[in-house]
Design brief:
single chain, mainly beta, Rieske Iron-sulfur Protein, seven-stranded antiparallel sheet, three-stranded antiparallel sheet, 0% helix, 43% strand
């Protein structure tokens, strides 16, 4: 992927590529990202469900501000990836839209040996 960067955010796609209430999957340096457009807002979450580590969150159902994993129904808030119970859920990434381009800030976990 040829990376375009806006500040510290990486360009993923054009806004018009995203369909309302449907997810789209992206891979950035081995990090799975699911983008969703809901009510005109764009959300970026980790695409790997913590339940069985499947990369299918982008295929999830949108309901009441949440995405529901299509495999076993685990629910995650779009705004922060947290489960409605308050349990930790999915990684959540900051999104910026500039001139119709969607950018996401990915923080890579680094090992300090």
């Amino acid at each position: 992927m040829n990376k375009e960067i806006l500040y510290d955010h990486i360009k993923l796609c054009r806004d018009e590529l995203l369909k309302e209430n449907e997810g789209k999957r992206f891979l950035i340096d081995d990090i799975e990202v699911a983008l969703f457009k809901v009510g005109g807002e764009i959300y970026a979450l980790g695409n790997i469900c913590p339940h069985q580590h499947s990369a299918l969150i982008y295929e999830g159902f949108i309901e009441e501000g949440c995405v529901i994993c299509p495999l076993h129904g685990w629910k995650f808030q779009l705004k922060d990836g947290i489960m409605p119970s308050g349990n930790r859920g999915l990684a959540s990434y900051q999104v910026k839209v500039a001139d119709g381009d969607v950018y996401v800030k990915i923080l890579k976990k680094e090992m300090n040996w």
